Predict the structure.
Amino acid sequence: MSAQLLQVLFAGLTAGAIYALVALGFSIIYNSSQVINFAQGEFVMIGGMATVSFLHLGLPLPLAALAAVAATTLVALALDKLAVERARNASVVTLIIITIGASILLRGLASLVWDKNIHALPAFSGDKPISVGGATLLPQSLWVLGVSLAVLAALWWFFNRTLYGKAMLATSHNRLAAQLAGISVRRVLLVSFGLSGALGALAGILVAPITFTAWDVGVMLGLKGFAAAILGGLGSGPGAVLGGLLLGLAEALAAGYVSSAYKDVIAFVIILAVLVLMPGGLLGRRAAERV
Amino acid sequence: MLARLGAARSGGLLALALAVALLPLALGNQYLYDVAILVGLNAIVCVGLNLLIGYAGQISLGHAGFFALGGYGSAILAVRYGWPPLATLPVSVGSVTLLAFLIGRPILRLKGHYLAMATLGLGVIITVVLATADRFTGGPDGMSVPPLALFGRALAGERAWYWLVGALLLACVWLALNLVESPRGRALRALHGSEVAAEMIGIDSARHKLAVFVLSAGLAAAAGGLTAHYSGFITPSQGSFLRSIELVTMVVFGGMASTFGAVVGAAVLTTLPQLLTPLKDYEMVVFGAVMMFTMIFMPRGIVPTLAALFKPRTRG
């Protein structure tokens, strides 16, 4: 394998892991409510920006990161409690518009609480590149991949081995039946917002040392996460991960071998092609319409 | 029943016509005219988009792309090829309509959020191409657009533009109101309810969806072209993802499946940022909060919620 290809693959996998985390956030909320949460990207932004702030306050990095995840989770819980839950009888489209409003509100708040400048977060364990087969790998990329894997394992355990996780899966399959079995659908929605907030924040903290962070980074990261979730099949956990990695790799390959200006175009053309051939995404559920 | 429906329809249209005719009395200066023109142009896009989203139930997160293409097409033909501006606009709108026809066929097979993603991708592709093909488009900084000339006289001044846009908006609303009550409109609502059921009673849902998609894209392109010629400048941000979201928000905010709702939504969400400008840094926060509160307390949108309030509580 040539060094250049290896380099491109490293970049693609790193970006892909971030997209996968964001996509998982989209899928978890979608599963419990059918809603696309357009504020998901803002969770990513808050995670990165809050970590920068907590570092400035003198907290050590692990504590700052933890505090930022907690803060973002609180914001996500508040979004559900104060807005989404209050409008629970509204149509899905209305709920989506509410999350769009929330994303504008959160971006505005971020530009007030912090500022409109670009902030850097130091890499977790230095910037000294590691040489692998002629290509260089930043230690931060290993952090991204490692933490993502750990998160995936934890999520798998949560959804397959705990009562709460199973209740959430049950709700995603059939809301009414889950309710009849005594599952509080409202609580499930709250937990799914909290979980998505934490996932988004983690993604934001992990990516900040590589790409910097600012009040408006959430727009693009949210867009990519949504694209990844759809590509893999909305609501599917493995689909979100697959979609994220494929999107990251497609972008990196396009930027490395075709044109960096057109990398988004190539990525979205691939997504459109996949959707036209597989209208439910790669691993999406096939559902027939009931009349 | 039919007569009453018809009366409500023409009544609403008459009210809108009166509003357009009387509004200049309240427009004291050029700036207010400017806002009113932008409201009208956005409303034209929203009336078309509402046919697609509100009536046919097909979401599009890429309509700003068509809007921008309409503007750029006209601008490029006029600036780079020296076409007379009156000829560029129809050609540009025609090309965008053709593009929507070609792309709509495969894309409209998708449903719900997948369709949203596909149209969103389309919008992103259009924006990136517009920002990168700088030989034609001037790149991310945009390009200037010559004014529209009618019979050798340049259409200039806010007043002239106000009447042009006002008349076009009325024509679009009239068209939309009639379309909705036509057999085609009923077919759209039927396939919104259930595509399978609609096909069972003989509705070619693919054809109807495509037709309304093409119509809404054409209206967006026309409004985009007019906006470009009116403001004299165009940038790729006209087609951005955020702008597409803004357009959909206007439709839902005003009230889905209500043509007047689309107009009201466009009016409120175009004027609100102007009203909030004095708040400077707090503008986004207040704008987001207003959006959330309105949707929480008026989940069906402004016009349907208000209409339900004023309607007598009898069912007939």
